[in-house]
Design goal:
Blueprint: E1 2-5, H1 11-14, H2 19-26, E2 31-34, E3 42-43, E4 46-47, E5 50-54, H3 56-64, H4 69-93, E6 103-108, E7 113-118, H5 124-138, H6 141-148, E8 161-167, E9 172-175, H7 178-195
Parallel strand pairs: 1-2, 5-6, 7-8
Antiparallel strand pairs: 1-5, 3-4, 6-7, 8-9
Helix pairs in contact: 2-4, 4-5
Length: about 200
Amino acid sequence: MLIVYKDIVPGTIVSEIPISDIQNAFGGTVVVTKENDNFDNFSGEEMSAIVLYFNEHYAELITSGLLFPAAYDVLKGMLKKLWHGLNLLIKRKESDDSPKKLIRLHLKNHSRTVEIVFEGYDGEQQLDKIIDNAFAFVRSHEFTEAARNPDFTNTDGDKPGHMIVYDFGKKAWTPVDYGEIKKKFDELRKFAEENFDS
């Protein structure tokens, strides 16, 4: 497992990552590193404060729901600590020009990439439900159907990619509509070409 974090994330948050628990639950090595030029932590226009990369085997177990309960509890506990820590940071430092504080769980298997984006905060009591619902949504028929729709598939990478975000208004996880993003971008480009000298 690889955990990459930005320099806006204080060491106190990073130090709460339960490395030994993760190693015991998932096996193998856990590498925690500050982002540098070797890591591309960008997806579209957004930046993530922390990105968690799982190897193909564990990505498959997570997305299929076959992860052992103890390992799932460690993963969920880590997400809760990181999310809580980032949201305390947001409350102290948030300004209009500060980068977004997101946690991005990056799951890549042999055929696709799934990114679960944790952003915003709805109170400590809701975290368990929101995190559980994220993994349930990735396993759902609704997500499978959305993943077949080209509008919900990012084809810029080496494998088809799908991203889900939590809609606090709807209280539900939803797939990112890349088709709508592309449409808006094309409209802006057309407007710029028609209204500005090149």
